Each structure stands twice: as C-alpha cells, then as structure tokens.
C-alpha cells in the first residue's frame, strides 16, 4: 500500500477540519478574531474604513480612533497596525484609522473642508463630508456603548500659543476608569509600560470626541498623546503598548490583564 494513501473518509474529515480552521483565522487579521469591514462617509472625500474584530467569546466592546488629526502620524499608524496584531478573544474591537483620510494623505491637521475633525462632535448627518463622518462615528459609539473609546493623538514640541502636553493621557470623566488610569500612570512612571512616564490632563477640548462622548453619552473616553519630538517608531510603540495594555485590562485579548 502507498504510505501516502489517506482513506476517503479520513480525507474528507481532514478537509473539513482545515476549512474550519481557516474560516476562524482570516488571512489579514490576527488569530482568535473574525474580521469585518465597512465604510463611513461613503462616497465622499472623507470616506474611510471601519474594521471590526470580534472575539469568539462574549465581552465588552471598545473603540479605537486614530488620525482625527491627519498629521499626527503615530496615532493612525499604530491603529493601522492594530488591525493586524490585535488577538481579540472576547468582545468586539472597532478600529477607525485614519479617521481623517485627507489629512493623513496630505500630512495636515485639517480635513478637505478645512475643519478640525476633533472639534466637530457630535457631527451633523446633513452637513458636509467632515460633519457626516463625525456624525457616523458618533452614531456607532452611541449604538455600541463601548466600555472605552481610545483616541490616539500626538503632542507638538513646546511652542507659543500651544499647550505642551508631551507624552500624556487626557480624561474628561474618571467614573469607572479610575483604576485603569492610575495603573497606566504608575506603570509608566515605574518604567514597565511605555518609553517614559506619562502625564495626566483633563478635560478634553470642547467639541472633541473625548469631551463630547464623555459629557453627552456618559461613556468613558481616554486620549493618548505621544510626543512628536521622538522617533516615529518609539511613538507608535508607545501607542500600541497602551492599547494592548487596555485590551488586556478588559480581558479582550489572548493574554488577560489585571483587574
């Protein structure tokens, strides 16, 4: 008998097993997650992709937004990488990046309509493309009621007429995330998380996703700022370290984090 011969029944079972494995691990996403894609502001110059990673077990939802300011490269670069590296085992992770496609393409803060996208919330469904995008992102957050919205930004070097934020996190309301924020600050200060200690500021600016979601929807929002004076890879690394820490904190990734 040929040593490579596989009985017909065994071959069918093997093929079925292989198909099940491949169905659970899409080629462009990390293991443990199923992936889906949709478009916000479809058909406009602000059209951008929303990626949804869903774990195999029930759990919370969490929204990550990168690139509301298009020239803050580390934020949307980190969120783009997260689409391929997040190992979601429980709950649902929504990733919108770059939120400001026009700004990211042209390396500018503002949108094609010359709006600061992070001052437009809750947006306007009947407005221009920038306002529509803000409104559609707002509708997603209102519908899904995530345990946390994580908003990725970058801070400018110290200069006149600009607040110097450096590496920092910004929170408008601490309700429900006190322990998370305290642990991030203490771990970055101890050198076990990120490349340097992080500062804490609040509240978010009027019209920002941070402040508006916190005040109007009463949902927790955390803005991460990395300092643009550092190399890009360092900044991207800090963003990703904090996001994965947060995902582990809520038990959404393969390795469970602290409670």
In one word, what is the shape?
A: globular
Give the proportion of residues in helices: 25-40%
Number of strands: 8
From the alpha carbons, calculate the radius of gyration and give it in angstroms: 20 Å
Folded structure, characterized:
The protein has 259 residues and is an alpha/beta fold. The chain has a single domain, classed as 3-Layer(aba) Sandwich (Aminopeptidase), CATH 3.40.630. Helix content is 35%, strand content 21%. The chain has seven helices and eight strands. The chain has an eight-stranded mixed beta sheet with strand order 1-2-4-3-5-8-6-7, sandwiched between helices. The termini are far apart. The N terminus is likely disordered.
Features:
259 residues, alpha/beta, Aminopeptidase, eight-stranded mixed β-sheet, 8 strands, disordered N terminus
Short description:
This protein has 259 residues and is of the alpha/beta class. The protein has helices at residues 8-24, 73-85, 101-106, 129-144, 178-190, 209-216, 232-249, and strands at 33-40, 48-55, 57-66, 90-96, 148-155, 168-171, 199-201, 221-227.
